[in-house]
Amino acid sequence: MTDYAYTILIPLVPLAVFVFTGLTGHKMKPIVSGLIGTAGLSFAAILSYYTAITYFWTGHTAGTGYVSIKAFEVNWLHLTDLLTIKLGSLIDPISVMMLVVITTVSLMVHIYSLGYMKGERGFHRFFSFLSLFSFSMLGLVLATNIFQMYIFWELVGVSSFLLIGFYYEKPSAVAASKKAFIVTRFADLGFLIGILMLSFNTHTFDFQTLTSPTGPAIAQAGGAAFMGMSVLTWSMIFIFMGGAGKSAMFPLHIWLPDAMEGPTPVSALIHAATMVVAGVYLVARLFPVYALGAPDALTLVAWVGGISSLFAAVIACTQTDIKRVLAYSTMSQIGYMMLALGVSGYGGENGLGFMASNFHLFTHAMFKALLFLGAGAVIHAVHSNDMSGMGNLRKYLPITHITFLIACITIAGIPPLSGFFSKDEILVAAFHHNKVLFFIEYAVAGLTAFYMFRLYYSIFWGKQTHYHHTPHEAPYVMTIPLIVLAFGAIFAGFLPFHNLVTSDGIPFETTTEWSIAIPSVLIALLGIGIATFMYRRVTAVPDKVAGAISHLYKWSYHKFYIDEVYLFVTKKIIFNFISRPLAWFDRHVVDGTMNGIAGIIQVSSVSIKGLQSGRVQQYAFVFVTGTIALVLIFAYLW
Amino acid sequence: MNILSLFVLIPVLTIIGIVFTKDLKQSRIVSAVGMGLQLLMAGLLVYLYLAERGAGNTAAMLFKYDVVWFPTLNIHYSVGVDGISVAMIALTAIVVFAGIFASWMVDYLPREFFISLILLASGVFGFFISLDLFTMFLFYELAVIPMYLLIGIWGSGPKEYSAMKLTLMLMAGSALLLVGLLGIYFNSAAGGGQLSWDIQQIAKIHIPIEMQRFLFPFTFIGFGILGALFPFHTWSPDGHASAPTAVSMLHAGVLMKLGGYGAFRVAIYLLPEAAHEQAWIFLILTSISVVYGAFGAIWQKDLKYINAYSSVSHCGLVLFAVLMMNQTAMNGAVIQMISHGLMTALFFALIGMIYGRTHTRMINEMGGLMKVMPFLGVAWVIAGLASLGLPGFSGFVAEMTIFVGAFQHTDVFHRVITILAVSSIVITAVYILRVVGSLLFGPIKDDHFLKLGDANWYERLSTISLIVSIAAIGLAPLWLSNMIGQSLIPMVQKITGITVAGLF
Amino acid sequence: MTGVIPLHAFLVISTLMFFIGIYGFLTRRNLITMLMSIELILNSVNINFVAFNRYLYPQNLSGHFFSLIVIAVAAAEAAVAIAIIINIYRNFKSIDVDKVDVMRF
């Protein structure tokens, strides 16, 4: 058994970089702080690769498969006799895989940002926040217990908040960052309640204990019931609420499209490849508990995933902001991953969905980061997000064009690129579990291909657009990450995931089920075909189609008015019907009572102050009559 | 000389020193030196305390010193500290120190200002070291009275009204408290013998349950008023809004903690049976405080009002946790007191600094200040994030300890009400981010803001000393939590009436 | 001891003096007159003291002593009162008790 204690350095190095550049960054040249950040992250990446290689080569033992190793742990806060919050690092297949994903994408984004953010005010701030985010995210995936995960969960939330609001002088960015934080915070409330309920019943936070099939959590499955479901199921549903919020699942997705206000590299890192899949990671981390102890909660996960993926795909077809299309696409793809987890069983072949979900997470990180970085290069070139103002950029941006095309083909699921393999596994898993969800995913596959190629053609083909200044290809520091990620997107599909990342650590065999794969590829090709027909050249077709389905188009364009519903609930109902009356109540009733008491005292004192007139002779008169009266009383009545 | 008595003596000497000064410059230097010394003493005390505990001294109270000062009523000047009081003393020392620097530029009657401020501080220090109920009450009153002058003379806005309201409500609390304390005193000799004011003496005997039922509401509400218990919290928004910066800092940061501290050191510790019986009423009230304060803060537009309501919410959580009456929740309550004391002091300090520049406290009149005053902006963001319970800052540690502790309660009612209190974390996020967003971010609303400068050295010193404390607790909470937890064991044993397994 | 003035004669005189004094104190607005009324009251008391002493406890002298004390107090009081009255006159140009109303609500 190898000693993995050094893995704790993987998050700690970015933390050190954050503290250092955060405190001293404004005193050094911007580029220096950028390079320090990149160097720190490179170090973390190298360590991660080393960990991955060591673990996947030597962590495997014949009978038990990959075991989870608690590499490092310290007590952080002592709560009760049984519950202690610890910080440490847990090494098992999914955490190692996540380490690789995060450090790879983060490193690419760091390098890319050296070019993209060049000359921006707050360059060093940007890099120190990136380091903060990397630290938090790495700490999250290495968490040994659910409370450590919650701690880092909050930290990624706040790094996301800081980075979305990077352009803090732009009101829309501020609003978006606020929205992202509050919506995910609301979801985290569910997470926290779930943790409290779970720890109350199991007396542990520890993942290894919780997920052990014979552990205290799963033993609760048949425990006390509340409204038809066991308490364990309820707590897992609450925990999933946290995951759904972070992963932008319907109906907690509203923050993600707005989060695109942040700089594009941030969108690539946080809102496409790493943070938003934290919800998937959370469910995967607690997967045995879901699968063995709370199958009802798992069904909920599947349906939420399925509905989100369809919902987002429909919306993505009509959006015109490049980054918003990609955001909805992200939501849709994460829906896939959730669905895959939801339809999975535990152990061996039953765990196909689990493997597929992680596989898709991995490939998605590559191609979605690539798409975002490509979009960033486009935005960098034309200084606009709106694709209706773009067209014919393939001549100006050759490298971006090629890599973007690769990413589009990958996400559409055309073999032999990586997206095909991971998506195929998900479809197979869904097919064996639930036919309705399976057909939803077929539809989503077609829609995905359609909207991605709509995006692709609108940017790189279509009308001849005149630009103020001729767009030029991005510098090497930006294109190299694109090329690296493109290689990742192409070849990641060949990784033997079924040997590496499985629900119980034991490898199993998978084969491509062509009866499912071929229709899905055909559907994807159909989507691409329609997009080609509609958007390759400027025609009147898109408008006609939009007119034909105007209601659906309108609803989709307005994102099914979910934002408006939220606004109505928060602004109108909570503000006007709770907060405002409460403020009134406080001013007038509670404070009014206090002032009223003071008022009563004042009124009564005014009414009796006439007795203290200050006239000496009046006092004397009262005194004398009083004395005489007393004398009479004592003399005669006693 | 007993080390604890120095905590009262140093402020008194400082006050005498200030009397001989001539102007602002001299008096502020004397104050800063005095309170700096006090801070060092507090650090030394923490060190000595931990060393003593490390050496195996398991007495409930350390550094005890006892002298009779009014034999007829058996009133003692009796001092001693356990982990809880040590932590509170350290908090007070930090906040007072920061407060002196936050009022570096007080222009009107500076000598009198510093004298009142330090008099207040000496009352607070005295309160935390006292083991004798009467002396404790005396110091409590000593802390409340200067507040009237400080708000009434150096305040802003409707200062006379606020000062009067605050003092009257707190005095009403004192009156209730005095009834409770006298009741405890007259029941302190079970089966004859000398009556006593000594907390530890009284804790050993059993006050008849009928008396407890009668006395508990008096004592708890008496302290609760100072701890902003709903519906007796309304002095807090007005009082804080009118008070000068350093006074708001001290008041919200330290004085409100007297309420929470007293509520469990006296009310719950000495009257445990009644506390158990009546806890549900007060739990409902405190959880209303928690949620209600947070909602109240959403609607406010004045920075000080926002922070005052936020204090209501956070202090409500302290009393809430105290009433849960188990080791973990009470530990959380003490950490929350310290954490809130630091955070709210930081907030009020920053509000004062920003107000001193922009001359407005209305959030809708400000905007984009981050660009003009980056230091204050960053400090504000840190304070905000700490206040909404971000890991890495003290607020998270406190809240999580409270929530986990409260949720471990075996009774379903307690757990349900805990979930209600937990929901405040979302509302807190809403109002904090609303303030951060409209105050610091966005475009600059007023052109003359562009000319404003960033923090001066004394403002930085004040801010940084608070931020460092907040982050230190937030990053390495274990030693603090252990120090408090250890001292709580005998109290929790008495309260729950059962022997809890030792934590260490 | 025939022809001696009976005790009740003294008492009647002192009662009359007392009530005249009370009447004067209550009705007069002039501070000097009020002071004089007080003197009347005090002297009526003195008469009582002396008379009771003489008729009831001739062997004792307490009544005489008390009346001496009262006289001393009255003298002191008159000195202080007149000083106050002079000050009032300086400030208000009047010694009417109703005019002195600055401390009154």
Overall description:
The complex is a heterotrimer of chains A (638), B (504) and C (105). Chain A has 638 residues and is mainly α. Helix content of chain A is 70%, strand content 4%. Chain A has a two-stranded antiparallel ribbon. The longest helix of chain A has 47 residues, at 562-608. In chain B, a hairpin with a 4-residue loop joins strand 1 (62-70) and strand 2 (75-81). The two termini of chain B are 32 Å apart. Chain B has helices at 3-19, 24-54, 83-102, 110-129, 133-154, 159-186, 199-204, 209-226, 235-242, 245-270, 272-299, 303-324, 327-358, 369-372, 374-387, 394-407, 412-422, 424-440, 457-475, 478-496; strands spanning 62-70, 75-81. Chain B is globular, with a radius of gyration of 22 Å. Chain C contains three helices and no strands. In chain C, helix 1 (7-27) runs antiparallel to helix 2 (31-56) and helix 2 packs antiparallel against helix 3 (62-92). In chain C, 15% of the residues are buried. The model of chain C has no long low-confidence stretch (mean pLDDT 88). At the A-B interface, strand 3, helix 5, helix 6 and helix 24 of A face helix 6, helix 11, helix 16, helix 17 and helix 18 of B.
